[in-house]
Structures are given as C-alpha cells and as structure tokens.
Amino acid sequence: MSMLDIAEHFEFIVIKEAAEQIENANQPEKAIQSILSIISRQMGLNRGRVLLQEPTSGYLYTAYSYGLTEEEVARSRFAIREGITGKVMHSGQPWIVPDIDLEEDYLCRTVSRETLPQEPVSFIATPIIRNGVPVGVMAVNRLKGRTRPLDKDLNILKLIALFISEILAVNTMLEQQTQILKEENEQLRALATSQGSHYGIIGESSALMDALNKVTRAANASVTVLLKGESGTGKEKFSRMLHLSSHRQDGPFIAINCAAIPLDLLESELFGHEKGAFTGATQTKQGKIELAHKGTLFLDEIGDMDLGLQAKLLRVLEERTITRVGSNRPIPVDVRIIVASHKDLHEGVNQGRFRLDLFYRLNVFPIELPPLRDRYGDIRLLSRHFLNLANQEYGVGTIFDQGALGFLETYDWPGNIRQLENVIKRAVLMAESNRFITADLIQQIISEESGIMAASRIAHTHKALIAKEPDVIEHEMQPMLNDRVAVMDHHRHKVAASSHDESMNHGGKRNYWRVSEDESERLMEALHQAHGNKTQAAALLDMTPRQFNYRLSKLGLQVK
Ligand SMILES: Nc1ncnc2c1ncn2[C@@H]1O[C@H](COP(=O)(O)OP(=O)(O)OP(=O)(O)O)[C@@H](O)[C@H]1O
C-alpha cells in the first residue's frame, strides 16, 4: 500500500465511523464526542470543539468538546465576529490558521499558548450549516508540521461538520416531538386533575370552566341554585357535582323530573301523602323532599311545574317544612334544593306560567351551562372520552378516522352532550370490521336519528319542481305536492317532538339540519345580506364562522 493509499484508507475509516454516529442522534453528547475522539486519534486533529449559539445572548459557547478541561470549555465563548471562531460564524466560511503564533486575530482564549506544544500549531474552523445558515462552528488544533496538507484536513472537517449538523437536526426534532408528547401528557394530566373530572365532568373550554367555578363557589353556600341550559348540557351532572362537593355529600341525592310525572301525581311524589288521602293511597308515603332530608333535591324541568305546586314549593323554600297530602302537620326538612330548566323562566313569568316570587327565590344563584357548540375544544375531548367508554362497554377497539373528529367538531349538536354520547355509542356498534368510525357513518346516524334527511330531500324536490314547471305544478302536481309537504311537515313535527329538538324550539332559532344541498340557498342568502362578510353571515345564521365555512366547503361553495 502506497502512502497515498494509506492516507485514503484512514480517511475512509474516519468518515465511516463518524457517519455511524448519526444513529446515536438521540444522545448528541455521546455521538459528537465520539466523532471528536475519532478525528483526534486517527488524524491528530486535537481539542475538537463544537460551538453553538446561545438563544438569548447570541454568544457562541462550547456545547461539545474533546480533550478540553472544564475551565477551557467555560472560557470558550465568543461574540459573533470575535476571534477566528466568531468570524467563521459570521461569514459562514471555513478558516485555516497555519500558525497561531503568527495570526493576530487568533485569541488563544480557549487553550492558552503554554498548554499547547512548543512547535508551531495550526487551527482549523468550519461552520456547521443547516438549511444554508450557519448554526455553529466546529474547530480543532493540529501540529503544523504533520505531513497531511491543512486543506485536506479541512475537507474532512467539512464532511464531519455535515454529520454533526445532521445529528443536531435529528436531536432537535426528537426534542420537539418529546415536547409535544410532554404537552399532550400535561394536558391529559391537567384534565384528569381538573375541577370537574373528579365528578366525571369532561371539558376545558372557558365556558365550562366558568360554570365549574360557580359550582365550586356555590357548593357550601347553601343557596338555591338554578341550572340553566339546553337539554343534554349536563344540568343533572352538575347538580350531582354540587351535591358531592358540598358538606351534604354523605346525605341523599334525589332527582325528580317535573315534566316526566303527570301533574296529579307530582304533588304526592314531592310532598308524600297520608294513608287514605286519596283513592289508592293505601299506605302513608314519604315524598321526595322528605326523603332528601340532610341531602340535596334536584328538581329538573321546574318550568313545567303547575302554579299550585309552585306555591307549595315556595313555602318549602321559605319555611323549610313540608306538609304531606292529606295532612295538616308540617314536617321540618333540611334540604338543599337545586332546580334546572331548559325553558326561560323569565319568559314563563311574563306569560303568567311561572310565579314571580318563586322565580326570585330560585334565581339567587343561576349557573348557565353552555350548549356544546359553544364549548370550544370540548367536543374533541368528550368524543374521545365517550369512545373509550363505549369501546370498554362493548369490548371493541374502534377509532375515529381523520375526518370523523373534524365532523363532530363542526356539527351543531342540538341535543348537546347526550346526543354526542348516543351518536358515538351507536357509531361504535355500527363501525365496520375495520374498526374505523368515519364522518360518513356519523352523518348517517345523525340523519337516521332525526329523520331530517327525508324531509330535506322532499323540500328539495318541491323547490326543484316549482322552479322548472310552474304550470304543470299548478294543475296536475299540486295535490301530490300537498301530500309531500304534509309528509314533510309530519317529519318536522316528529323531530320537533323528539327530545333533542326541544332545544331547537326553546333555544329559539337554532337549526340542526345537517349539511344538505338545500342549505346552500340559506348560506348564500346570508352571505348576500352580510355583503360577503363570512363572519357576519355566520352570525346571521347563528353559527360559528368555523361551522359556516365547513358548510360552504361541504357544498363546494368556494367564496373568496
Ligand atoms: N361535561 C360532561 N362530561 C361528561 N359527560 C357529560 C358532561 N355533561 C353531561 N354529560 C353526560 O351527558 C348526558 C346528559 O347530561 P345531563 O342528563 O346531566 O343533561 P341535562 O342538561 O340534565 O339534560 P336534560 O335537560 O335533558 O335533563 C349524561 O349522560 C351525562 O353524564
């Protein structure tokens, strides 16, 4: 082997061993030190150091080194343009100092001249480049008198600097990914320890947090709490939290839905009755209020209570006693009363359906539970939560595909959390064998639930026919159309009667039609009225801008 062959063989070994260190990029300290050690042992390029820029000061500092003492590392700091190192960083160009004793810009800052050999010493520095920009400097000392030309060493160092750049980039990427995972973990941890999670209340939206804060404040205040919110927003869940976080937690929690019990039974259900008080009252029975003694009574749908019973309830609140049906004896009760309504009680007062004095008593501490569509970010969390629960319940392992969560987030959810929970349960049961829950499957379940698809298709046909052939319609098709419209009205009626549509009626103008072609007219009309401003158009339709945009894009209506 000639001298030239031997030199090339060494170069090859150095490059190969250095390149292998890229695999250790997750441990940059180890990887870079190994490289600096190889070039020192095999090529006599000593005291190798890799300087990087401090993010805040911009100074170059020695991040990795081989053969330097701790003091030398600490001294090895340079401003940009300072010394040869600073100049390499600034210019992005490598630099060879053949004899450091003859170069006045060489500062001898890192390693003092006395520490180095007496004979002439050279210095080589090359930038570490990432995406065309210098991100650091790599530098070494070597004896000037070695046989290898300095520029040959520089060529190898340039290659080594490339490997180091790669190691640093991979490491940055790994650190970023770890950071994301840490944040996700942190989010989950925060969620698990958040105020409501203790009580199975999932969510982190500010709207939900406001409500949770109020619950915490009210818990031990013994005030009557009025929970307001559309159907399925968690009024009962919150009332349980109120109970469990109060000093009454060991007492009973009794819930009663005033709308679900026939009027003539509600009084005895609430107040109890004496034996013989009415036909069929064969036994004395305690009412729910009495049973809730030392605990909490949750009266749901209080707006549906009749005026007579409202007066009796007012007495309970004022006198803290109840009188059973068929008795005159007041019985003292110590009950915390929480009431809920999806109806606007104030409106009930205006319409003479609700007593003003009772309204004042109940409205001392109102807590508004936001509809799901206003809980930004919660839909995702709740969806994953319900998916986990349903997977566990049915012993399967379904997952959402990419579009599913996006769809869930943009849908209006008139039935709120209850509807979301039901839809996900059904989706888990209906998911194909591939176990993916798709946006299409969710849409299908929602439209099956509401029967609204059929109605919207009929409406569509109706409009199309009128647009095309008014005369024919007038004379021949009108009876048929009347039938169809009747069917459509029937569908609407059915939907309005279904539980989750109550929110649509009571919430006023909300519309929960899925994105259908009929909607394009509505969207375009709103855009027209808002002079093309999408945010305003969304507001006109009582939608969030996201929902509005989603619908536009689903319908292929690209509006600039
Ligand atoms: N923040 C939440 N996190 C997890 N589950 C929730 C949350 N809020 C409500 N739920 C669940 O959603 C469903 C509906 O909640 P809840 O019955 O409390 O609503 P509601 O407002 O009382 O409804 P309605 O007015 O129709 O009686 C329940 O299964 C409940 O457990």
Lay out the secondary structure:
Blueprint: H1 3-20, H2 28-43, E1 46-53, E2 60-65, H3 70-75, E3 77-78, H4 83-91, E4 95-97, E5 121-130, E6 133-143, H5 150-192, H6 206-219, E7 225-228, H7 235-244, E8 253-257, H8 263-271, E9 272-273, E10 285-286, H9 288-291, E11 296-300, H10 307-319, E12 321-323, E13 330-332, E14 336-341, H11 345-350, H12 356-362, E15 365-368, H13 378-394, E16 399-400, H14 402-410, H15 416-430, E17 436-437, H16 439-450, H17 452-468, H18 470-497, H19 502-506, H20 519-529, H21 534-540, H22 545-554
Parallel strand pairs: 7-14, 7-15, 8-11, 11-14, 16-17
Antiparallel strand pairs: 1-2, 1-6, 2-3, 4-5, 5-6, 9-10, 12-13
Bound molecules: adenosine-5'-triphosphate.
| Terminus-to-terminus distance | 72 Å
Number of helices: 22
Within CATH, the superfamily of one domain carries the name GAF domain
- In the CATH hierarchy, the third-tier topology of one domain is known as Beta-Lactamase
Q: Can you summarize the main beta sheet?
A: 6 strands, antiparallel
Under the CATH scheme, the architecture of one domain is: 2-Layer Sandwich
Structural class, from secondary structure content? alpha/beta
Small-molecule binders: adenosine-5'-triphosphate
Notes on the protein architecture:
The protein is an alpha/beta fold. Among the domains are: 3-176, Beta-Lactamase (2-Layer Sandwich), CATH 3.30.450; 203-370, P-loop containing nucleotide triphosphate hydrolases (Rossmann fold), CATH 3.40.50; 519-554. It has 22 helices and 17 strands. It has helices at residues 3-20, 28-43, 70-75, 83-91, 150-192, 206-219, 235-244, 263-271, 288-291, 307-319, 345-350, 356-362, 378-394, 402-410, 416-430, 439-450, 452-468, 470-497, 502-506, 519-529, 534-540, 545-554, and strands spanning 46-53, 60-65, 77-78, 95-97, 121-130, 133-143, 225-228, 253-257, 272-273, 285-286, 296-300, 321-323, 330-332, 336-341, 365-368, 399-400, 436-437. The strands form 5 sheets. A 6-stranded antiparallel sheet has the order 3-2-1-6-5-4, sandwiched between helices. Strands 8-11-14-7-15 form a 5-stranded parallel sheet. A two-stranded antiparallel ribbon has the order 9-10. β5 and β6 form a beta hairpin. α1 (3-20) packs parallel to α5, α13 (378-394) packs across α15 and α15 crosses α16. 32% of the residues are buried.
